[in-house]
């Protein structure tokens, strides 16, 4: 454990907070390891009725850490763990979400954000594809909208994220939005929650079982490509990559 995920408990709800604001909560190998361990504890804790996943700083998650990336298989494992966890997982977002961070949202059962949050599939702009994150997102989002935003890298606001299925709800105060959700989870029987979640997530887990190996291999191949090296270098140097037209 490296202390990148904080845990707190209140009346049946365990809150896990991504706490690497200096790195915009990017999915480094260390953060993925810490979050995986924290979720494992939540999944076996009888006092945890549900999990809230949130963040410090102005960014929920900036996607994969380009300086310390986890292997694609680790991201597959993390997203699948959230989907399969026998506790509902609720994303609470008050900042920006990019690339792999959208995989976290897609894996959660419920996702709410403040209206100041923004979202973008930035993979194509650095020369890769949203391969692994498509596993939880394809079964849960509008296909036409997903095609547009994955192919262009355009930014979405919270209202559009709700319309496309990236979010469940959004509002000026995300805690006000989530209050009835958490109250409902506290009133639900633990066995009923686990079995209901299992029914709802069955199609998502089918996608993982069918496609995860192929998509992890695709992700690894693209990240090792010359175009990805140019895209990531350009991103870190704050310039346009060589393929930008005009």
UniProtKB/TrEMBL annotation:
<dbReference type="InterPro" id="IPR051683">
    <property type="entry name" value="Enoyl-CoA_Hydratase/Isomerase"/>
</dbReference>
<dbReference type="InterPro" id="IPR014748">
    <property type="entry name" value="Enoyl-CoA_hydra_C"/>
</dbReference>
<protein>
    <submittedName>
        <fullName>Enoyl-CoA hydratase family protein</fullName>
    </submittedName>
</protein>
<dbReference type="Pfam" id="PF00378">
    <property type="entry name" value="ECH_1"/>
</dbReference>
<dbReference type="InterPro" id="IPR029045">
    <property type="entry name" value="ClpP/crotonase-like_dom_sf"/>
</dbReference>
<dbReference type="InterPro" id="IPR001753">
    <property type="entry name" value="Enoyl-CoA_hydra/iso"/>
</dbReference>
<comment type="similarity">
    <text>Belongs to the enoyl-CoA hydratase/isomerase family.</text>
</comment>
């Amino acid at each position: 454990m490296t202390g990148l995920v904080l845990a707190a408990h209140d009346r049946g709800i365990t809150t896990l907070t991504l706490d690497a604001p200096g790195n915009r909560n990017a999915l480094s190998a260390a953060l993925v390891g810490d979050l995986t361990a924290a979720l494992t504890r939540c999944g076996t804790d009888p006092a945890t009725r549900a999990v809230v996943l949130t963040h410090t700083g102005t960014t929920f998650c900036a996607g994969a850490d380009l300086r310390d990336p986890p292997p694609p298989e680790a991201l597959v494992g993390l997203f699948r763990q959230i989907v399969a966890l026998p506790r509902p997982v609720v994303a609470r977002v008050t900042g920006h979400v990019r690339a792999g961070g959208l995989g976290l949202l897609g894996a959660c059962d419920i996702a709410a954000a403040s209206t100041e949050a923004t979202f973008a599939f930035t993979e194509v702009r650095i020369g890769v594809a949203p391969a692994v994150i498509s596993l939880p997102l394809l079964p849960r989002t509008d296909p036409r909208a997903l095609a547009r935003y994955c192919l262009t890298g355009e930014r979405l606001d919270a209202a559009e994220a709700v319309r496309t299925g990236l979010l469940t709800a959004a509002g000026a105060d995300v805690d006000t939005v989530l209050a009835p959700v958490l109250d409902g989870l506290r009133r639900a029987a633990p066995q009923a929650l686990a079995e209901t979640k299992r029914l709802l997530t069955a199609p998502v887990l089918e996608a993982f079982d069918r496609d995860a190996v192929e998509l992890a291999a695709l992700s690894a191949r693209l990240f090792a490509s010359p175009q990805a090296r140019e895209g990531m270098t350009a991103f870190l140097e704050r310039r346009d990559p060589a393929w930008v037209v005009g």
